Amino acid sequence: MEAKEWRIEQERLDQVREKLKARMGELEPEVAGLHDQAAEIRRRFWEEVTVNTSSDEDFEETFYTIKQQAAVLSERERRHQLLTQQWRSLNRLFPSPYFGRVDFLEEGLNQSEQIYIGVSSFVDEDGLSFLVYDWRTPIASLYYDHSPGAASYVTPAGRIMGTMELKRQYQIQGGQIRHMFDASVTIGDELLQQMLAKGANSHMKSIVSTIQKEQNAIIRNDDSRLLIVQGAAGSGKTSAALQRVAYLLYKNRDSLKADQIVLFSPNPIFNSYVSSVLPELGEENMQQTTLQEYLEYWLGSSLRLEDPFDQIEYVLTAQSTPNYEARLQGMKYKASEAFLRALENYAQWLGREGMLFNGIRFRDRDLITAEQMRSHFYSYDPSLRLANRVDLLQKWLLKELSQLERKERKASWVEEELQYLDSEQYAEVFGELHKDREVFDIAEHYAVVYEKISKKRRGDEGDFDFAEREEDLLSQRIVKMSFKPLRQSVRKLSFIDVQGLYTQLFGDEAAYREKTNEAEIPVLWPEICKQTKAKLDRLELFYEDATPYLYLKELLEGVRTNTEIRHVFVDEGQDYSPFQYEYLKKLFPRARMTVLGDFGQAIFTQATKLQGDDSPLVRLYGESETNLIRLVRSYRSTREIVEFTKKLLTDGSEIVPFARSGPKPLLATIEGGEKRDARMLKDIAALKAEGFDSIAVITKTAAESRTAFESLRMIQGGEALQLITKETVAFEKGVMVIPVYLAKGIEFDAVLIYEASSQAYGRENDRKLLYTACTRAMHRLQLYTTSDWSPFVQPLPANLYEKAQ
Ligand SMILES: Nc1ncnc2c1ncn2[C@@H]1O[C@H](COP(=O)(O)OP(=O)(O)OP(=O)(O)O)[C@@H](O)[C@H]1O
Description:
This is Helicase. The protein is an alpha/beta fold. Among the domains are: 1-94, no CATH class; 98-220, no CATH class; 639-803, Rossmann fold (3-Layer(aba) Sandwich), CATH 3.40.50.300. It is built from 28 helices and 26 strands. Strands 1, 2, 3, 4, 5, 6 and 7 form a 7-stranded mixed sheet that branches. The chain has a 7-stranded parallel sheet with strand order 22-23-21-24-25-20-26. Helix 12 (324-334) crosses helix 21 (525-537). The protein is globular and about 115 Å long. The chain starts with a helix and ends with a strand. The site of adenosine-5'-triphosphate has 23 residues, from helix 5 and helix 7.
């Protein structure tokens, strides 16, 4: 670019930075001043108000002064917050105020406007001229959606047409323009090249300066109830999702708060991996959770829940154990919409018969039996929903308990207990009674006055015998305390035998059919029943049973909904079952859903197809409310790695690599595990010497990870290796050994596949595992085997890889 142009741009940049600095300078004392003022008001809050409650007027005045003081304080605090936010965003802009510019000539005008785009807006002193536009403003979408020529953007008032005369990109560091490109067709391949060539990080980066057109469509999609993004590995799904959160928070800043958005992540490490993107963009993080965390919370501690990682570990390692097939069939069936309908029908059936309750026992006696509950339950209007009848039953039980409690006061054990009250308990009771004493005194006083006025003697002097009253109150209290847990458990609906009701479902085929109207029952149903029941008997629950179990619980107790949440994001969406989607839909009735995933990486048994006529996800809200965006360009890996990995899939032909080159994947056949391990460590050392500092040895299973880790660690140079397990919560850079399913969504400079033999990845199901593992690599991919190559590697054309010497 011409030196003159460069100089003009640097001068403008200097001017903008001057203005930023001046504005920050103005704000600083205000920010600090307001902070001090608020602190001072808080400190002197009670000095400023004189509390006087002697008369009604004084009391009223005191009340109003407190209110006024509180209002002043909250106004100062609000203003302080606002100014601090402004100050922070200026501060963020200062080192690099913008990354893009478009010159746009709007139709009907005769002068084009220069639009500079950065991570937030900055307006000149006149309050009108935008020196920098926030990347989320409508006009900024020009930069992402168009190349020079005819262009338009959408505003709330309609579409604005015009011509883009220039599109420029900058790399600015510490106030200096380092690079500047005029872009043509796509947003600067040059800039993107540079971004992608960088090393992997322990935290995901924001992609704000190089968002691609198809990603922008995801970020700014406003009109669908369900947005599905099916995108190849490394196509920027997670990146786009996080930018979308930032966009939504900006666009709806008056009505949407970060905690009204929830992201379901595949695992806890992923949470840590993506946690810095939004703060980097000046936004608060949304809520992040895993489905497992959610299920565990609502299922409580009565059953021990298997997690999805133990489930997949079983699927991958237990092929030779008995009844493996039945478990797999069970997993598939329990993940289906059919099973959800079966549970709904079962709930209907329970409305007519078959409810199971836990009787209430007290001191080894039946207080209220399950049978009594059942007959009460079925005496209610059968047209009422199950949950409403449960509600009525709960009310009845609480009333019944109150009556029983009253009767219980005369029981002999109460008297005994009275004798054994220890001093502490007694003191407590006495304290309580002391409060009652005042009531008692008033009553006594009233009785005396009443006697005088009415000139009638009191009927029974003993009514007000304090000693007797004291004993009464004491026994009342003792019984009340003992009944407290009973009431609590009724309030928690523990009288419903959910476990029994879920178990009851797994009877013989005829019974199951009768209860659920299910026509298609899995072939190995008897064995599935046996396994499910045996697990429940041990007070454990298979992962595939967790959502159905919770769903049944909610059909009985009333469906739990969260109406606060407005947006639900599901990352790695292919790993959720149709059943789980239906459940999420019910759980968040007021939320829009964004599902991002890749069926090419569907490694769990309960996978859901994200697109196509047979996709249950498309059926979830219906086609008219669903939008599908497909991403086929892969940004993470070099062209050579993408060409190699896409051939691992049967239908990967449409995946398009981004034009960034590197060495071809390396295949190393090494005889014997020991030699392989030594070779790997040598290769790791070489990669480190090349400057790569995020390196993963990826294994198929956690069991293999542990063995690999143990043996690699024994070799010189292997001491610094980290083992990543499902318990690992934070993602750090370095050299690590990790099973594929925990590496989902994450990336590394270099990936080494520990054992890519036919034994390890031989079954059709393993194809996607191997693909997922290989696609974690950004710059280098190396595969090792100690025997023959996996059948997915064998047929690959020899020009796609190098063979190691
Ligand atoms: N527009 C972009 N500009 C710069 N980098 C990008 C862009 N899109 C994607 N990337 C980079 O590509 C890599 C992959 O992105 P991301 O993890 O979001 O992909 P993904 O589709 O979620 O991948 P996977 O399904 O394999 O987990 C990241 O390093 C990301 O920063």
